Amino acid sequence: MRPVLSSFTPGYKIAYLFLFLLIGVITAGILTNLILMIPAVGSGNGVNAIYVGSVMQSLVGTALPAFLIAALTHPSPAGYLKMTGSSRMGRKMVFAVLAFLFSYCLASFLSQWNKGFVLPAPMRGVEQVLRSMEDAALATTDLLLSGKTIGSLILNLVVVAGFAAVSEEMFFRGALQQFIQEKFPDGHAAVWITALVFSLVHFQFYGFLPRLLLGALLGYLFLYTQNLWIPILFHFINNAFIIVMHYFWGNTSWMREIEEMPVNGWFALAAAASALCTVLLFWGYSKKWKGA
Predict the structure, then answer these.
(1) pLDDT tens digit string along 170-204?
(2) Which of 33, 79, 83, 217 is the most buried (most CB within 10 A)?
(3) Which residues of the chain have a pLDDT value below 70?
(4) What is the tens place of the pLDDT at every residue in 53-86?
(5) How many angstroms separate the CA atoms of 133 and 212, rounded?
(6) Which residues neighbour 7 within 8 Å (Cβ) at sequence distance 6 or greater?
(7) What single DSSP character describes residue 7?
(8) Sign for the pseudo-dihedral over CA of 76, 78, 80, 82
């Protein structure tokens, strides 16, 4: 049987994708509230609510819409999302790990630089709202990372790193980027448009630039390897690295110094070297292994 959306234009497919996203987010919120009505789950200091909400948003709010749109677009949803087996997986996984290592300094520089953005005086009210949103997101993150048991570490790796990586890559790279690429076949426009949307929907102005870079790296990993598990691996490593660092060294002075590193000439030089190494890595892969 022919999928009902297979003949639709890319614009209509994207519209349905975001409609499913809206329905999924609302449904996830309802399910979260229902689950939290269970006394054993709803009790605590609010951490349980964050975990339950995160799982529901990942599964129902993000991953399910991507799978549904793929099922309505292609006879094999997993095949369309490129979540099936692939040749040279070992080489592609090494590519993802190297991409993370090479780009880390650049991402750190953009993060520190973005945090220091100051809006013009007439927009100070807007800046205060943006700062308060950023502080609220940071407080939620700090609450999740505050656990010091092995159980909390594993839970964060599964929920915060694992579920988020799989669901977001299914939605943004597996579905959205491919729909945009149907309109812009060369792939580069699809990568950057998707990265822009990916950064915008997180509603964190002071994390916009590093998340835009992250989205672009994930997009090019998907474009070059044609396998969704590769950007998923990169996304997981990116999230898991932060979780592990905070678990073992979150209260150390050197960790705080790294997080508060000033944006100076040496940092900019290291970021430029990081950017060059990253570009050369992707260029080399594209010349030798792209599509393999």
Answers:
(1) 999 999 999 999 998 889 999 999 999 999 998 78
(2) 217
(3) 1-2, 42-45, 290-292
(4) 999 999 999 999 999 999 999 889 999 999 987 7
(5) 18
(6) none
(7) T
(8) negative
Which ranges of 61-88 does DSSP label H, i.e. alpha helix? 64-71, 77-80
Q: Do 45 and 147 meet the contact criterion of CB atoms below 8 Å apart? A: no
Query: How far is Cα 113 from Cα 107, in angstroms, rounded to an integer?
Result: 10
Residue type, position 28, single letter? A
Q: Which of 62, 229, 236 is nearest to 158 (CA)?
A: 236
C-alpha closest to that of 234 among 159, 156, 155, 164: 164
* Max CA distance (Å), the chain: 61
Q: Where would I find the H helices in 116-177?
A: 124-145, 150-156, 164-169
Nearest to 189 by CA among 150, 219, 210: 219
Note the Cα 220 to chain centre separation in Å: 14
Distance CA 14, CA 265 (A): 42
Residues in CB range of 219: below 8 A, 6 or more apart: 173, 177, 190, 191, 192, 194, 195, 231
Residues in contact with 140: Cβ distance below 8 Å, sequence separation at least 6, in sequence order? 50
Residues 6+ apart with CB under 8 A from 67: 77, 81, 170
